[in-house]
Amino acid sequence: MNTEFLIKDAKNFVNQNVTVRGWVFNKRSSGSIIFLQIRDGSGFIQTTVSKKDVPAEVFGQAHEITDESSIVLTGTIKAEPRSPYGFEIQAKDLKIISLAQAEFPIAAKEHGIDFLLSWRHLWLRSPRQWAILRIRSRMMNAINDFLQKEGYLRIDSPILTPSACEGTTTLFPVPYLPAWPDGDNQTVPSWLNPDQTKPYAFLSQSGQLYLEAAIAAHRKVYDFGPTFRAEKSKTKRHLTEFWMMDAEAAFMDFEELLGFEEKMICHLIQDVLDNCRAELQVLERDVKPLEKIQPPFLRLTYEETLKKLKELGSDIQDGEDLGNDDETTLMTHFEKPLFITRFPSAFKAFYFKRDKEKENLTLSNDLLASEGYGEIVGGGQREDDYEILLKRFREAGLNENDYGWYLDLRKYGSVPHSGFGLGLERLLAWICKLEHIREAIPFPRTIYRFTP
Ligand code: ATP
Ligand code: MG
Hints:
Elements: E1 17-29, E2 33-39, E3 44-50, H1 56-64, E4 70-79, E5 87-98, H2 113-118, H3 120-123, H4 127-149, E6 153-154, E7 160-161, E8 173-175, E9 200-203, H5 208-218, E10 220-228, E11 241-250, H6 254-275, H7 277-282, H8 288-291, E12 298-301, H9 302-311, H10 324-333, E13 338-341, E14 364-369, E15 374-381, H11 386-395, H12 404-408, E16 417-423, H13 424-431
Parallel strand pairs: 3-5, 6-10, 12-13
Antiparallel strand pairs: 1-2, 1-4, 2-3, 4-5, 7-9, 8-9, 10-11, 11-16, 13-14, 14-15, 15-16
The structure holds adenosine-5'-triphosphate and magnesium ion.
Protein backbone atom coordinates (compact mmCIF):
# COMPACT_ATOMS: atom_id res chain seq x y z
CA MET A 1 0.00 0.00 0.00
CA ASN A 2 1.32 3.42 -0.96
CA THR A 3 -0.11 6.00 1.43
CA GLU A 4 1.86 8.91 0.00
CA PHE A 5 0.27 8.58 -3.44
CA LEU A 6 -1.06 11.76 -5.08
CA ILE A 7 -3.35 11.76 -8.11
CA LYS A 8 -1.00 14.03 -10.07
CA ASP A 9 1.57 11.19 -10.07
CA ALA A 10 -0.85 8.57 -11.48
CA LYS A 11 1.29 8.05 -14.60
CA ASN A 12 4.08 6.61 -12.44
CA PHE A 13 1.82 4.01 -10.85
CA VAL A 14 0.12 2.29 -13.77
CA ASN A 15 -0.95 -1.27 -12.85
CA GLN A 16 0.11 -0.68 -9.25
CA ASN A 17 -1.94 -0.57 -6.09
CA VAL A 18 -2.36 2.85 -4.52
CA THR A 19 -4.31 4.43 -1.69
CA VAL A 20 -5.96 7.77 -2.32
CA ARG A 21 -7.23 10.08 0.39
CA GLY A 22 -9.55 12.76 -0.87
CA TRP A 23 -13.08 13.82 -1.70
CA VAL A 24 -15.76 12.50 -4.01
CA PHE A 25 -17.02 15.34 -6.15
CA ASN A 26 -19.37 13.40 -8.38
CA LYS A 27 -21.02 9.99 -8.40
CA ARG A 28 -22.76 8.06 -11.19
CA SER A 29 -24.16 4.62 -10.97
CA SER A 30 -25.09 2.07 -13.61
CA GLY A 31 -26.40 -0.77 -11.48
CA SER A 32 -23.41 -2.98 -10.94
CA ILE A 33 -20.75 -0.25 -11.42
CA ILE A 34 -20.43 2.98 -9.47
CA PHE A 35 -18.25 5.75 -10.91
CA LEU A 36 -16.72 8.10 -8.37
CA GLN A 37 -14.96 11.29 -9.44
CA ILE A 38 -12.29 11.94 -6.86
CA ARG A 39 -9.97 14.82 -6.11
CA ASP A 40 -7.15 14.90 -3.59
CA GLY A 41 -5.89 18.48 -3.92
CA SER A 42 -3.24 17.52 -6.47
CA GLY A 43 -5.59 16.47 -9.26
CA PHE A 44 -8.74 14.64 -10.36
CA ILE A 45 -9.38 11.04 -11.32
CA GLN A 46 -12.27 8.66 -11.89
CA THR A 47 -12.66 5.47 -9.88
CA THR A 48 -14.82 2.53 -10.85
CA VAL A 49 -16.28 0.42 -8.08
CA SER A 50 -17.45 -2.81 -9.62
CA LYS A 51 -19.86 -5.05 -7.73
CA LYS A 52 -18.10 -8.18 -8.91
CA ASP A 53 -14.61 -6.97 -7.83
CA VAL A 54 -15.23 -5.71 -4.28
CA PRO A 55 -16.74 -7.16 -1.11
CA ALA A 56 -20.46 -6.47 -0.70
CA GLU A 57 -19.84 -4.08 2.19
CA VAL A 58 -17.43 -1.95 0.10
CA PHE A 59 -19.97 -1.72 -2.69
CA GLY A 60 -22.54 -0.74 -0.06
CA GLN A 61 -20.28 2.11 1.11
CA ALA A 62 -19.83 3.33 -2.47
CA HIS A 63 -23.58 3.24 -2.89
CA GLU A 64 -24.11 5.32 0.25
CA ILE A 65 -21.53 8.00 -0.61
CA THR A 66 -22.76 11.55 -1.15
CA ASP A 67 -20.98 14.28 -3.12
CA GLU A 68 -18.14 15.92 -1.18
CA SER A 69 -17.75 13.03 1.27
CA SER A 70 -14.16 12.44 2.29
CA ILE A 71 -12.84 8.94 1.68
CA VAL A 72 -9.84 6.69 1.69
CA LEU A 73 -9.75 4.34 -1.25
CA THR A 74 -7.42 1.59 -2.42
CA GLY A 75 -7.29 0.31 -5.97
CA THR A 76 -5.23 -0.28 -9.10
CA ILE A 77 -4.28 2.52 -11.49
CA LYS A 78 -5.14 1.77 -15.11
CA ALA A 79 -4.31 3.76 -18.22
CA GLU A 80 -7.63 4.96 -19.64
CA PRO A 81 -7.34 6.87 -22.91
CA ARG A 82 -11.08 7.66 -22.91
CA SER A 83 -10.83 9.54 -19.61
CA PRO A 84 -9.97 13.25 -19.70
CA TYR A 85 -7.43 12.48 -16.97
CA GLY A 86 -5.78 9.64 -18.94
CA PHE A 87 -6.02 7.21 -16.01
CA GLU A 88 -8.56 5.65 -13.72
CA ILE A 89 -8.59 3.62 -10.56
CA GLN A 90 -10.26 0.25 -10.24
CA ALA A 91 -11.34 0.17 -6.62
CA LYS A 92 -10.63 -2.70 -4.25
CA ASP A 93 -11.38 -1.13 -0.93
CA LEU A 94 -13.10 2.03 0.24
CA LYS A 95 -13.82 3.72 3.55
CA ILE A 96 -15.84 6.83 4.18
CA ILE A 97 -14.00 9.22 6.50
CA SER A 98 -16.89 11.67 6.76
CA LEU A 99 -20.19 11.34 4.95
CA ALA A 100 -21.17 14.76 3.56
CA GLN A 101 -24.66 16.04 4.16
CA ALA A 102 -26.85 15.76 1.11
CA GLU A 103 -27.08 17.93 -0.88
CA PHE A 104 -23.90 19.92 -1.40
CA PRO A 105 -25.13 23.56 -1.55
CA ILE A 106 -23.33 24.38 -4.78
CA ALA A 107 -23.82 21.13 -6.64
CA ALA A 108 -23.01 21.28 -10.32
CA LYS A 109 -25.92 23.51 -11.33
CA GLU A 110 -25.73 27.03 -12.72
CA HIS A 111 -25.61 29.55 -9.89
CA GLY A 112 -25.64 33.34 -9.75
CA ILE A 113 -22.44 35.07 -8.67
CA ASP A 114 -23.89 36.40 -5.44
CA PHE A 115 -24.91 32.88 -4.43
CA LEU A 116 -21.44 31.56 -5.24
CA LEU A 117 -19.73 34.36 -3.31
CA SER A 118 -21.88 33.61 -0.27
CA TRP A 119 -20.67 30.02 -0.49
CA ARG A 120 -17.09 30.96 -1.32
CA HIS A 121 -15.81 28.64 1.43
CA LEU A 122 -17.24 25.71 -0.56
CA TRP A 123 -16.93 27.24 -4.03
CA LEU A 124 -13.12 27.06 -3.63
CA ARG A 125 -13.44 23.30 -4.27
CA SER A 126 -14.66 23.66 -7.84
CA PRO A 127 -12.11 22.84 -10.58
CA ARG A 128 -12.05 26.40 -11.95
CA GLN A 129 -11.36 27.93 -8.57
CA TRP A 130 -8.82 25.22 -7.87
CA ALA A 131 -6.97 26.10 -11.09
CA ILE A 132 -7.03 29.86 -10.47
CA LEU A 133 -5.62 29.60 -6.96
CA ARG A 134 -2.92 27.22 -8.10
CA ILE A 135 -1.84 29.72 -10.76
CA ARG A 136 -1.97 32.43 -8.08
CA SER A 137 0.40 30.47 -5.87
CA ARG A 138 2.71 29.78 -8.80
CA MET A 139 2.80 33.47 -9.74
CA MET A 140 3.59 34.55 -6.18
CA ASN A 141 6.61 32.26 -6.23
CA ALA A 142 7.61 33.32 -9.73
CA ILE A 143 7.51 37.00 -8.74
CA ASN A 144 9.71 36.31 -5.72
CA ASP A 145 12.13 34.14 -7.69
CA PHE A 146 12.44 36.60 -10.53
CA LEU A 147 13.16 39.58 -8.28
CA GLN A 148 15.60 37.67 -6.10
CA LYS A 149 17.53 36.55 -9.21
CA GLU A 150 17.59 40.17 -10.36
CA GLY A 151 19.26 41.11 -7.07
CA TYR A 152 16.24 42.57 -5.27
CA LEU A 153 15.94 42.16 -1.51
CA ARG A 154 12.52 41.59 0.01
CA ILE A 155 11.57 44.32 2.46
CA ASP A 156 8.31 44.11 4.33
CA SER A 157 6.52 47.45 4.42
CA PRO A 158 4.21 48.15 7.33
CA ILE A 159 0.46 47.60 6.96
CA LEU A 160 -0.48 50.10 9.67
CA THR A 161 0.66 53.48 8.43
CA PRO A 162 0.39 56.99 9.84
CA SER A 163 -0.59 58.79 6.65
CA ALA A 164 -1.65 58.38 3.07
CA CYS A 165 0.85 58.20 0.27
CA GLU A 166 -1.59 59.26 -2.45
CA GLY A 167 -4.60 61.29 -1.38
CA THR A 168 -6.83 60.26 1.50
CA THR A 169 -10.13 59.38 -0.15
CA THR A 170 -9.49 55.68 -0.40
CA LEU A 171 -8.04 55.00 3.05
CA PHE A 172 -9.30 52.60 5.68
CA PRO A 173 -8.82 54.16 9.13
CA VAL A 174 -8.36 51.86 12.11
CA PRO A 175 -8.32 52.89 15.76
CA TYR A 176 -4.72 52.50 16.86
CA LEU A 177 -4.73 50.97 20.34
CA PRO A 178 -8.47 51.43 20.90
CA ALA A 179 -8.00 51.55 24.68
CA TRP A 180 -5.96 54.79 24.50
CA PRO A 181 -7.01 56.95 27.47
CA ASP A 182 -9.26 59.78 26.30
CA GLY A 183 -7.78 63.21 26.43
CA ASP A 184 -4.98 62.27 28.77
CA ASN A 185 -2.23 64.38 27.25
CA GLN A 186 0.37 62.85 29.53
CA THR A 187 0.13 59.59 27.61
CA VAL A 188 -0.06 61.05 24.11
CA PRO A 189 3.33 60.54 22.48
CA SER A 190 5.22 63.41 20.94
CA TRP A 191 4.88 62.12 17.37
CA LEU A 192 1.12 62.47 17.41
CA ASN A 193 -0.52 65.61 16.04
CA PRO A 194 -1.35 67.76 19.08
CA ASP A 195 -5.02 67.98 18.02
CA GLN A 196 -5.31 64.22 17.94
CA THR A 197 -5.85 62.59 21.29
CA LYS A 198 -7.15 59.32 19.94
CA PRO A 199 -4.62 58.02 17.48
CA TYR A 200 -5.71 56.10 14.46
CA ALA A 201 -3.73 54.47 11.71
CA PHE A 202 -4.53 53.71 8.09
CA LEU A 203 -4.24 50.38 6.34
CA SER A 204 -1.45 50.60 3.78
CA GLN A 205 -2.41 51.55 0.23
CA SER A 206 1.16 51.05 -1.04
CA GLY A 207 4.53 50.29 0.47
CA GLN A 208 6.41 52.42 -2.01
CA LEU A 209 7.52 55.25 0.26
CA TYR A 210 9.02 52.76 2.71
CA LEU A 211 10.85 51.00 -0.11
CA GLU A 212 12.36 54.32 -1.10
CA ALA A 213 13.88 54.47 2.38
CA ALA A 214 15.34 50.98 1.98
CA ILE A 215 17.09 51.51 -1.37
CA ALA A 216 19.89 53.51 0.27
CA ALA A 217 20.64 50.42 2.37
CA HIS A 218 20.01 47.65 -0.17
CA ARG A 219 19.96 49.33 -3.58
CA LYS A 220 17.17 47.17 -5.08
CA VAL A 221 14.20 46.15 -2.93
CA TYR A 222 10.62 44.92 -3.17
CA ASP A 223 7.66 44.16 -1.02
CA PHE A 224 4.69 41.91 -1.58
CA GLY A 225 1.67 41.96 0.61
CA PRO A 226 -1.93 42.95 1.20
CA THR A 227 -2.92 46.44 0.19
CA PHE A 228 -6.11 48.26 1.06
CA ARG A 229 -8.09 50.82 -0.86
CA ALA A 230 -11.59 51.91 0.02
CA GLU A 231 -12.38 52.07 -3.70
CA LYS A 232 -15.93 53.17 -4.32
CA SER A 233 -15.67 52.21 -7.97
CA LYS A 234 -17.93 49.31 -8.94
CA THR A 235 -15.64 47.96 -11.63
CA LYS A 236 -14.51 44.45 -12.49
CA ARG A 237 -10.96 45.57 -11.69
CA HIS A 238 -11.14 46.87 -8.14
CA LEU A 239 -10.99 45.05 -4.85
CA THR A 240 -10.80 46.80 -1.48
CA GLU A 241 -8.13 44.34 -0.34
CA PHE A 242 -5.62 43.09 -2.90
CA TRP A 243 -2.02 41.96 -3.12
CA MET A 244 0.56 44.27 -4.53
CA MET A 245 4.22 43.83 -5.30
CA ASP A 246 6.15 47.11 -5.18
CA ALA A 247 9.72 47.22 -6.45
CA GLU A 248 12.13 50.14 -6.15
CA ALA A 249 15.68 50.51 -7.47
CA ALA A 250 18.40 53.08 -6.87
CA PHE A 251 20.16 54.47 -9.98
CA MET A 252 17.36 53.27 -12.26
CA ASP A 253 16.09 55.86 -14.72
CA PHE A 254 12.74 55.94 -16.47
CA GLU A 255 13.86 54.12 -19.63
CA GLU A 256 15.50 51.32 -17.63
CA LEU A 257 12.34 51.03 -15.56
CA LEU A 258 10.17 50.35 -18.61
CA GLY A 259 12.62 47.71 -19.80
CA PHE A 260 12.57 46.02 -16.40
CA GLU A 261 8.77 45.96 -16.15
CA GLU A 262 8.62 44.44 -19.63
CA LYS A 263 11.19 41.79 -18.74
CA MET A 264 9.33 40.85 -15.58
CA ILE A 265 5.91 40.52 -17.22
CA CYS A 266 7.33 38.44 -20.09
CA HIS A 267 9.07 36.22 -17.56
CA LEU A 268 5.87 35.68 -15.56
CA ILE A 269 3.82 34.83 -18.64
CA GLN A 270 6.46 32.37 -19.82
CA ASP A 271 6.54 30.81 -16.37
CA VAL A 272 2.80 30.23 -16.38
CA LEU A 273 2.93 28.76 -19.90
CA ASP A 274 5.76 26.44 -18.87
CA ASN A 275 4.32 25.31 -15.55
CA CYS A 276 0.54 25.70 -15.46
CA ARG A 277 -0.68 23.99 -18.65
CA ALA A 278 -3.08 21.70 -16.76
CA GLU A 279 -4.62 24.60 -14.87
CA LEU A 280 -4.98 26.72 -18.02
CA GLN A 281 -6.70 23.75 -19.63
CA VAL A 282 -9.19 23.46 -16.76
CA LEU A 283 -9.93 27.15 -17.33
CA GLU A 284 -10.25 26.53 -21.07
CA ARG A 285 -7.83 29.41 -21.52
CA ASP A 286 -6.74 29.93 -25.13
CA VAL A 287 -2.97 30.27 -24.67
CA LYS A 288 -2.22 31.71 -28.12
CA PRO A 289 -2.66 35.33 -27.05
CA LEU A 290 -0.35 34.69 -24.08
CA GLU A 291 2.28 33.13 -26.33
CA LYS A 292 2.42 36.44 -28.22
CA ILE A 293 3.53 38.31 -25.09
CA GLN A 294 7.12 38.97 -26.14
CA PRO A 295 9.24 42.12 -25.96
CA PRO A 296 9.15 44.84 -27.06
CA PHE A 297 5.80 46.09 -25.76
CA LEU A 298 4.12 49.01 -27.46
CA ARG A 299 4.80 52.46 -26.06
CA LEU A 300 2.63 55.54 -26.37
CA THR A 301 2.82 58.78 -24.46
CA TYR A 302 -0.32 59.99 -22.77
CA GLU A 303 -0.75 62.53 -25.56
CA GLU A 304 -0.37 59.90 -28.29
CA THR A 305 -2.78 57.66 -26.40
CA LEU A 306 -5.43 60.36 -26.38
CA LYS A 307 -5.07 60.73 -30.14
CA LYS A 308 -5.40 56.98 -30.60
CA LEU A 309 -8.44 56.83 -28.34
CA LYS A 310 -10.20 59.56 -30.29
CA GLU A 311 -9.49 57.62 -33.49
CA LEU A 312 -11.05 54.58 -31.85
CA GLY A 313 -14.20 56.55 -31.06
CA SER A 314 -13.69 57.51 -27.40
CA ASP A 315 -15.06 60.87 -26.26
CA ILE A 316 -12.11 61.44 -23.90
CA GLN A 317 -11.16 65.13 -23.61
CA ASP A 318 -7.65 66.61 -23.56
CA GLY A 319 -6.25 66.61 -20.05
CA GLU A 320 -8.62 63.90 -18.84
CA ASP A 321 -7.47 60.69 -17.16
CA LEU A 322 -8.28 57.40 -18.87
CA GLY A 323 -11.36 55.61 -17.60
CA ASN A 324 -11.84 51.85 -17.46
CA ASP A 325 -13.76 51.96 -20.72
CA ASP A 326 -10.90 53.77 -22.44
CA GLU A 327 -8.46 51.12 -21.23
CA THR A 328 -10.76 48.40 -22.53
CA THR A 329 -11.08 50.13 -25.91
CA LEU A 330 -7.31 50.41 -26.28
CA MET A 331 -6.57 46.91 -25.16
CA THR A 332 -9.17 45.33 -27.37
CA HIS A 333 -7.44 47.14 -30.23
CA PHE A 334 -3.83 46.20 -29.38
CA GLU A 335 -2.69 42.58 -29.22
CA LYS A 336 0.29 43.18 -26.95
CA PRO A 337 0.64 44.96 -23.61
CA LEU A 338 0.92 48.72 -23.90
CA PHE A 339 2.98 51.23 -21.93
CA ILE A 340 1.33 54.60 -21.55
CA THR A 341 3.96 57.10 -20.46
CA ARG A 342 4.28 60.70 -19.32
CA PHE A 343 0.91 61.37 -17.72
CA PRO A 344 0.07 64.97 -16.78
CA SER A 345 1.01 65.82 -13.20
CA ALA A 346 -2.63 66.75 -12.50
CA PHE A 347 -3.59 63.11 -12.03
CA LYS A 348 -0.42 61.57 -10.76
CA ALA A 349 0.95 61.58 -7.19
CA PHE A 350 3.31 64.28 -5.95
CA TYR A 351 6.42 62.07 -5.89
CA PHE A 352 6.81 61.56 -9.65
CA LYS A 353 9.78 63.25 -11.27
CA ARG A 354 8.80 65.67 -14.02
CA ASP A 355 9.81 65.52 -17.64
CA LYS A 356 12.79 67.84 -18.33
CA GLU A 357 11.22 69.13 -21.55
CA LYS A 358 7.65 69.48 -20.31
CA GLU A 359 7.32 70.43 -16.66
CA ASN A 360 3.64 69.49 -16.47
CA LEU A 361 4.31 65.90 -17.53
CA THR A 362 5.53 63.19 -15.17
CA LEU A 363 8.00 60.37 -15.77
CA SER A 364 5.23 57.91 -15.05
CA ASN A 365 3.88 54.83 -16.77
CA ASP A 366 0.90 52.52 -16.65
CA LEU A 367 1.25 49.09 -18.22
CA LEU A 368 -1.98 47.87 -19.78
CA ALA A 369 -2.64 44.17 -20.37
CA SER A 370 -4.02 42.89 -23.65
CA GLU A 371 -7.35 41.17 -24.39
CA GLY A 372 -9.20 44.16 -22.95
CA TYR A 373 -7.74 43.89 -19.46
CA GLY A 374 -6.18 47.30 -18.88
CA GLU A 375 -3.82 48.48 -16.14
CA ILE A 376 -1.82 45.88 -14.26
CA VAL A 377 1.24 47.97 -13.35
CA GLY A 378 1.78 51.61 -12.36
CA GLY A 379 5.29 52.97 -12.07
CA GLY A 380 7.67 55.86 -12.58
CA GLN A 381 10.83 57.71 -11.72
CA ARG A 382 10.70 59.50 -8.35
CA GLU A 383 11.60 63.10 -7.59
CA ASP A 384 15.01 62.99 -5.91
CA ASP A 385 15.63 66.70 -5.27
CA TYR A 386 14.80 67.96 -1.78
CA GLU A 387 13.69 71.48 -2.71
CA ILE A 388 11.52 70.35 -5.62
CA LEU A 389 9.91 67.60 -3.55
CA LEU A 390 9.12 70.07 -0.77
CA LYS A 391 7.50 72.34 -3.34
CA ARG A 392 5.41 69.40 -4.64
CA PHE A 393 4.23 68.63 -1.11
CA ARG A 394 3.01 72.14 -0.67
CA GLU A 395 1.35 72.26 -4.08
CA ALA A 396 -0.48 69.01 -3.26
CA GLY A 397 -1.72 70.51 0.01
CA LEU A 398 0.01 67.80 2.04
CA ASN A 399 1.30 68.34 5.55
CA GLU A 400 5.06 68.14 5.25
CA ASN A 401 5.32 67.26 8.94
CA ASP A 402 3.58 63.98 8.18
CA TYR A 403 6.30 63.20 5.67
CA GLY A 404 9.40 64.51 7.41
CA TRP A 405 11.04 61.12 7.26
CA TYR A 406 10.39 60.81 3.53
CA LEU A 407 11.91 64.24 2.86
CA ASP A 408 14.97 63.21 4.90
CA LEU A 409 15.75 60.62 2.24
CA ARG A 410 16.53 63.47 -0.16
CA LYS A 411 18.87 65.12 2.36
CA TYR A 412 21.21 62.19 2.85
CA GLY A 413 22.66 60.77 -0.33
CA SER A 414 19.70 61.10 -2.67
CA VAL A 415 20.04 59.28 -6.01
CA PRO A 416 17.93 58.97 -9.15
CA HIS A 417 15.55 56.07 -8.60
CA SER A 418 12.44 54.44 -10.00
CA GLY A 419 9.90 51.81 -9.09
CA PHE A 420 6.57 50.24 -9.86
CA GLY A 421 3.63 48.41 -8.36
CA LEU A 422 2.08 45.25 -9.81
CA GLY A 423 -1.39 44.17 -8.74
CA LEU A 424 -1.37 40.37 -8.35
CA GLU A 425 -5.10 39.90 -8.92
CA ARG A 426 -5.06 42.11 -12.02
CA LEU A 427 -2.26 39.96 -13.42
CA LEU A 428 -4.21 36.79 -12.61
CA ALA A 429 -7.49 38.06 -14.03
CA TRP A 430 -5.65 38.57 -17.31
CA ILE A 431 -3.69 35.30 -17.29
CA CYS A 432 -6.79 33.27 -16.37
CA LYS A 433 -9.04 35.44 -18.55
CA LEU A 434 -11.50 36.05 -15.73
CA GLU A 435 -14.68 38.00 -16.16
CA HIS A 436 -14.12 39.71 -12.79
CA ILE A 437 -11.11 40.21 -10.51
CA ARG A 438 -12.95 38.79 -7.47
CA GLU A 439 -12.18 35.19 -8.51
CA ALA A 440 -8.43 35.90 -8.40
CA ILE A 441 -8.22 36.05 -4.59
CA PRO A 442 -9.33 33.33 -2.14
CA PHE A 443 -11.77 35.46 -0.15
CA PRO A 444 -12.54 38.66 -2.08
CA ARG A 445 -13.34 41.96 -0.39
CA THR A 446 -15.17 44.51 -2.50
CA ILE A 447 -17.38 47.48 -1.75
CA TYR A 448 -20.30 45.07 -1.69
CA ARG A 449 -19.06 42.36 0.61
CA PHE A 450 -16.43 41.19 3.03
CA THR A 451 -17.92 37.84 4.01
CA PRO A 452 -17.30 34.95 4.36
P1 ATP B 1 -6.60 52.21 -11.16
O1 ATP B 1 -6.43 53.49 -11.92
O2 ATP B 1 -6.92 51.03 -12.01
O3 ATP B 1 -7.50 52.35 -9.96
P2 ATP B 1 -4.22 52.91 -9.74
O4 ATP B 1 -3.64 53.90 -10.67
O5 ATP B 1 -4.98 53.39 -8.56
O6 ATP B 1 -5.16 51.86 -10.55
P3 ATP B 1 -1.67 52.21 -8.63
O7 ATP B 1 -1.87 53.11 -7.48
O8 ATP B 1 -0.68 52.57 -9.65
O9 ATP B 1 -3.07 51.89 -9.30
O10 ATP B 1 -1.37 50.75 -8.04
C1 ATP B 1 -0.49 49.83 -8.68
C2 ATP B 1 -1.23 48.60 -9.16
O11 ATP B 1 -2.03 48.03 -8.14
C3 ATP B 1 -2.21 48.85 -10.29
O12 ATP B 1 -1.57 48.92 -11.52
C4 ATP B 1 -3.11 47.64 -10.19
O13 ATP B 1 -2.50 46.51 -10.78
C5 ATP B 1 -3.18 47.41 -8.70
N1 ATP B 1 -4.40 47.98 -8.11
C6 ATP B 1 -4.64 49.26 -7.80
N2 ATP B 1 -5.84 49.44 -7.24
C7 ATP B 1 -6.39 48.19 -7.19
C8 ATP B 1 -7.62 47.68 -6.69
N3 ATP B 1 -8.51 48.47 -6.10
N4 ATP B 1 -7.87 46.36 -6.79
C9 ATP B 1 -6.96 45.53 -7.35
N5 ATP B 1 -5.77 45.95 -7.83
C10 ATP B 1 -5.49 47.26 -7.75
MG1 MG C 1 -7.03 53.33 -8.22
